[in-house]
Amino acid sequence: EGVRLVQATHHKYCPLFVGKGDATTQSPQQRNAIHYMSMYDNKILRNFTGHSGEITGLSMNPIDDCFLSASADRKVRLWNIQQAGCLAELTLPAGSEGSPHACFDSTGLVFGVAAPMAGISGHLINLYDARKYDGGAFAELKLARTSIEKAIHNKGVAPELAMELSNTEWTSLRFNTSGKQLLVTANKGLALALDGFDGTVNNVFVGEGASPGVPPTQPLAACFTPDDKTVLGGNEDGTISCWNATTGKLLRKLEGHVGRVGCVAVNPKYAQIASACTNPALWIW
């Protein structure tokens, strides 16, 4: 059936994954199940069912066996690998629409949930205490579309393109190591660095298209380096852009891929970068 999402866990040979499913033979819950698999003996150890829409993201808690799942059914669920059934279910607040995104911070004590506001007016970002999530969000941030458009335009992007990019769909959400910033990736090669306390746009990053002068059309794969000093972004021309996380200045480009770089990740302990297009690569930073 194929695989859409994969998430590493704290268990060396046991990842979480989400398959593509078969709409003709499976119910929505079966089709959108999360599977916990042992690669050592090629067995499914546990299935996590409950979502009725396509799962848009998984995020593992860095300190324990809990993980988050976000879905097009407009729900975010909290699970524990060691038990069946979800620990908690979050329904998006009124005034939001579309699919959410969720992630833990580097301490595992906070998680964030983002969702579009109704009428393409912006995005909601709610922050939760992972130990007291049942008490609701401790911070409710709103990022207006006009603020995104202004930040993009201030980076030298033409007004028409800035408006178009400000409306584009977000594809992922993640914290930097310190938790002081959030990195949002979106369609059409866009990434935004947001202040982790008030949700304002700190910086804008726009990737490269498949050829010079052609704007990107695909989601940008991007991440912070562990020291929070650099943002890495995979481009459609096969390069990886390395931007200064504070100034947004392009520091260098890594070359070597033959097609669009659809995945970029960093080693949290060593100066290594992993990236992939049709072929994977490992870089020494």
Q: How many separate helices? A: 3
Number of E-state strands: 23
Low-pLDDT segments, ≥5 res: none
Bin the helical content.
under 10%
Instruction: State the major sheet.
Output: 4 strands, antiparallel
Main β-sheet, spatial strand arrangement: 1-2-3-4
Structural class: mainly beta
Shape: globular
Strand composition percent: 35-45%
How much is the average pLDDT? 92
Q: Name the helix and strand elements from N-terminus to C-terminus, one letter apiece.
A: EEHEEEEEEEEEEHHEEEEEEEEEEE
- The value of Rg in angstroms is 19 Å
How far the N terminus sits from the C terminus, by CA atoms, comes to: 36 Å
Description:
The protein has 285 residues and is mainly β. 8% of the residues lie in helices and 44% in strands. It has three helices and 23 strands. Strands 1-2-3-4 form a four-stranded antiparallel beta sheet, with no helix packed on it. Helix 2 crosses helix 3. The chain starts with a strand and ends with a strand. 39% of the residues are buried. The mean pLDDT is 92.
What labels would you give this structure?
285 residues; 3 helices; globular; mainly beta; 4-stranded antiparallel sheet; 23 strands
Give a short summary of the structure:
The chain has 285 residues and is mainly beta. It has 3 helices and 23 strands.
Give the SSE layout.
Elements: E1 3-7, E2 16-19, H1 28-31, E3 34-38, E4 43-48, E5 55-60, E6 66-71, E7 75-80, E8 88-91, E9 101-104, E10 110-116, E11 122-129, E12 139-144, H2 145-154, H3 159-166, E13 170-175, E14 181-186, E15 190-195, E16 201-206, E17 221-224, E18 230-234, E19 240-244, E20 250-254, E21 263-266, E22 272-276, E23 280-284
Antiparallel strand pairs: 1-2, 2-3, 3-4, 5-6, 6-7, 7-8, 9-10, 10-11, 11-12, 13-14, 14-15, 15-16, 17-18, 18-19, 19-20, 21-22, 22-23
Helix pairs in contact: 2-3
